[in-house]
Write a structure and sequence with these properties.
This protein is an alpha/beta fold. It starts with a strand and ends with a helix. It is built from 25 helices and 27 strands. The protein has a seven-stranded mixed β-sheet with strand order 14-15-3-8-7-6-25. 49% of the residues are buried. Helix content is 39%, strand content 19%.
Length: 783
């Protein structure tokens, strides 16, 4: 552990489990899969000032909420800041109109869950207060690297205490002083280098010898990728199943969780996986009072293996699951990545390091929640990505058992997911003395890895190359067998993060080429390794992608247009449709970020010249008009300026005002949002989806980044040039003085004032009026 005395920042090694998840995060298709979002419905209104005070208090209290993670060298490190501002985000919708409140609330939570977190930058926890009309919710999103479900429960308990104190205008009083999580992490790292886990590791080596992870047979041929598309739904077990669980726990002294494990074993065994079934189960890993009070990520993956024979009774399988669960509790402290790395290569290959079917029991997690005297109810998780094929969490409430099911929609349809829950329900409700061989299920199951080994072949273009031979040799040494073809996934073949680092080091020693392990995670295959070693990654071509696009061909006058800040050529579609049919229309689109209006104008003009395109008129909307004006300085052409402010220089617009202007391009009813721009973009995406005009948040965010850069470029652009050309100046939001400023710069200016707003110039009736004016202007100038 290291402390930066001057700044008070503490650096410590991450736990082995955190390090493994860091690697999983790097290779995930959708990295939000390792976010945890608790969407909490509030029974009454929430005091925003008290909530802000309480959240800052909790962040100050717990070091994990001020922790970031990075890998500057060989190890993943925790970096704990001594202090960190933690504002509460806010969304307020007074009148949602025709928008379904439930849909809007769900979409806002989903967008909060989806918003990326940069692991290198704390905080990795975000709290939002959401109000839609009279509905109130809290949306708390954390990265799983810093908190597990148990830790989240503790955070919510402290937040409730702090909120009650803030409402009362007093300092909060907590029962205990928190233990810094980085102390626990340091202890875990010290244990990893000792023999303390030796007995646990030996137990798991013996227990898992020859095991193969079991999964539900996919309804498509898609392979599992961490972070693949997913969905969550909730299921309530029948009264008969609840009664069956009670009977089995009483007769076998098993926990309800052991009963659920046994039921899953039976369903998968009867579904075709065979008598040897292995599934994953997430353990809280909190056996001592110290661990139970620690806010952080302690949970650990353990594997539940069962041998299920047709001649067994349901009662026998539950008894075996009970014994397995007790042994699992005894040996749960050894981190699964540590255990996995110690298993034989063939066992790693058949188990994989991301068990495809996972089961957990929540116990008290998510229950008894409140915010001071405001009752809170935990709603379904707003995930859009899947951690595994199936992840099922169970709990008991009001004498009934429930499950939250997350599944991979790329591999399974809803009917398959529902059938699995129906089969579990039937097994739980079965007579304890019923023979397993008589249990009928609809679920089809299979080992996650088959024994089929395709013919080994070098990647195309690298037959018997030195790079392929090195990859083949190192792969064989680390995984116990050569790669099963050039496109096999390293992790599906039994690799893990520790072996990944060893592979990188071994290849560097053999070839002298440094392979960036994180870069390789984008495609962790032998083919990609060979390409990296040979230095012949896919070439991007000559990099000369043109910025010019054709919006409409024609034999008449040629108009070339430049979009406004953050815009695209498609923004002009209404004007293009309204222009006479013979007009030819082209446009420019930014391919690489420009640094100034002049820089952008030079790039656009160069591409037009390179393609031999010489338009009759240049035009642009908003900031695009400034670019067109700059282009006309070098090659004079008549100009069409669509509500473009003159280039006299402007003070920077406040970010809130800038965002409101950006959002106005998409909707006139955006909710009131407080938070950083990335969050506001996410809420905008949720609102647009709720009103039936969905635009992916990532696309909106890209446009927002371009919009702010373009807007700042426009504000900074100053030119007093007078051009010997005619100009059509279209004003909507332009002031009369701004139109006059433009008029003085041209030989033959015309001004059209349109009764609309800045964005309305490009829409509906106003766009037709503008198009008519452009057509008349073009004919006049030609004459």
């Amino acid at each position: 552990m290291h402390t930066d005395v001057e700044r008070g920042t503490v650096t410590a090694a991450a736990t082995p489990t955190q390090e493994a998840m860091w690697w999983l995060h790097q290779r995930a298709k959708n990295k939000s899969v390792y976010h945890i979002t608790w969407r909490l419905a509030a029974g009454s209104a929430i005091d925003p000032a008290a909530l802000a005070t309480a959240w800052q208090c909790v962040v100050d209290r717990h070091d994990v909420l001020r922790t970031s993670l990075s890998r500057p060298g060989d190890d993943v490190l925790l970096r704990v800041r001594p202090a960190l501002p933690a504002p509460v985000r806010r969304v307020e919708v007074d009148d949602p109109g025709d928008v379904d409140k439930d849909v809007l609330l769900r979409l806002i939570a989903e967008e909060a869950q989806q918003q990326p977190m940069a692991l290198e930058h704390a905080p990795l926890a975000r709290l939002a207060a959401v109000r839609v009309a009279d509905r109130h919710e809290l949306v708390l999103t954390v990265h799983h690297l810093i908190l597990d479900g148990w830790g989240l429960q503790l955070v919510m308990e402290d937040l409730s205490t702090a909120y009650a104190a803030a409402v009362a205008g007093r300092e909060p009083e907590f029962a205990t002083e928190p233990e810094p999580f980085h102390h626990y992490a340091t202890g875990q790292r010290e244990t990893a280098t000792s023999t303390r886990w030796a007995d646990d590791v030996e137990y798991w080596r013996d227990r898992l010898a020859g095991a193969s992870a079991t999964t539900v047979a996919a309804t498509t041929d898609a392979e599992f990728v961490p972070g693949a598309p997913g969905v969550v739904f909730r299921h309530t077990f029948s009264e008969a199943a609840t009664a069956g669980i009670a009977a089995l726990t009483t007769s076998t002294f098993a926990t309800p969780f052991a009963v659920f494990q046994a039921a899953m074993h039976i369903v998968l065994a009867r579904g075709g996986a065979g008598p040897d079934v292995t599934i994953g189960t997430e353990m809280a890993n909190r056996m001592t009072p110290r661990e139970q009070g620690l806010v952080g990520y302690l949970a650990n993956l353990c594997l539940s293996r069962a041998h299920v024979a047709d001649t067994d009774r349901v009662l026998d399988v539950v008894t075996a699951a009970r014994d397995d669960a007790w042994a699992m509790l005894t040996h749960q402290s050894a981190p699964y990545p540590f255990v996995f790395g110690a298993l034989p290569g063939e066992t790693r290959r058949t188990l994989t390091d991301d068990c495809p079917v996972g089961l957990s029991h929540l116990g008290p997690i998510g229950t008894g929640l409140g915010l001071g005297d405001v009752g809170l109810t935990l709603l379904p998780s707003p995930n859009r990505a899947a951690r595994a094929d199936f992840s099922i969490s169970t709990w008991e409430a009001d004498g009934t058992y429930h499950a939250e099911v997350e599944y991979n929609t790329g591999r399974y349809d809803q009917a398959t997911a529902e059938a699995l829950l129906t089969d579990l329900d039937a097994v739980l409700a079965a007579d304890p003395d019923q023979l397993v061989g008589s249990v009928q299920v609809r679920t089809r199951a299979t080992p996650a890895r088959t024994d089929h080994v395709p013919e080994i072949a070098a990647p195309a273009g690298h037959p018997e190359s030195a790079a392929w031979r090195h990859v083949d040799a190192v792969w064989s040494d680390l995984l116990g067998a050569p790669p099963e073809g050039s496109d096999v996934d390293f992790f599906a073949a039994g690799g893990n993060s520790l072996l990944l680092l060893r592979l990188s080091a071994a290849l560097e020693a053999a070839t002298g080429v440094v392979v960036d392990a994180v870069e390789w995670l984008a495609e962790p295959t032998p083919r990609a390794l060979v390409s990296l070693l040979a230095g012949n990654e896919d070439e991007p071509g000559d990099g000369t992608t043109t910025t010019t696009v054709v919006l409409r061909e024609g034999t008449g006058p040629h108009l070339h247009l430049v979009p406004g800040a953050g815009g695209s050529p498609s923004d002009f579609r209404a004007i293009v449709e309204a222009l006479p049919a013979q007009w030819r229309v082209t446009a420019s689109r930014e391919q690489e970020p420009a640094t100034s209006v002049r820089d952008m104008a030079r790039r656009f003009a160069a591409d037009l010249a390179a393609e031999g395109i010489e338009p009759d008129l240049l035009g642009g909307w908003s900031m695009g008009g400034l670019v067109a004006y700059e282009m006309a300085r070098e090659a004079p052409k008549p100009l069409v300026l669509l509500d473009s402010p003159p280039p006299v220089g402007y003070p920077p617009t406040a970010e809130d005002e800038l965002f409101d202007t950006f959002a106005a391009a998409f909707t006139t009813g955006l909710p009131v949002v407080a938070g950083e721009p990335a969050f506001r973009v996410r809420v905008l995406a949720a609102w647009l989806a709720a009103i039936g005009q969905p635009i992916p948040a990532d696309a909106l965010e890209e446009r927002w980044r371009a919009y702010t850069r373009h807007a700042r470029m426009g504000e900074a652009y100053v030119s007093a040039a007078e051009l010997p050309v005619a100009a059509l100046i279209v004003g909507a939001d332009l002031r009369a003085s701004e139109c006059e400023e433009w008029e003085g710069r041209f030989r033959g200016p015309s001004v059209l004032t349109v009764d609309t707003d800045h964005h309305g110039v490009l829409r509906d009736a106003a766009a037709w009026e503008v198009a008519v004016a452009i057509a008349g202007f073009g004919l006049r100038d030609a004459a």
